[in-house]
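Appendix B, Record 12. Input sequence as logged:
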Amino acid sequence: MVLYHVLLYIHIFAAMVMVGISLANGFGKMFADRTGNVHRMASVLALTVYFNKVLIFPSLVVVALSGIGLTVILHLPLLGGWVLQATIILAVLFILFFVGNHYENRLHQIAGRSEENKQQVISDKYWSVSKRYYLTGFPVIVAILLILYLMIFQRSLF
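Logged structural output:
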């Protein structure tokens, strides 16, 4: 039972990191974009790219591995019910992470170049990529909420 509790707390902590940093990245970018300040936008995106590498991706991996460990310890079927649904949604989150990370890296490059060139206004390309970034962010939030529901209530979505 000790291993179960250790994995459970690791799983919960990793999920909290993933959710918290994901929301912080999204809100940070949104508020930085509202200012129109090129330096602020570049700085927030630098932090976002860093947090993705250091916190979000590792937390996704830890959530997946600890979830598998908990499933094995509890003798739950991997291919049925809410566990299968959580696995599918987590796989979608991994895909969305890489898509969103691509957009964030691209936005960071655009904002960084604008800052280096001492531009006062960010380019139209930034706003074009930003729209796709936000379109990726909405399914991420939905997927995170669905995963949290499955983790907490351990009931099938349908």
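The CA atoms of residues 17 and 123 lie 32 Å apart.
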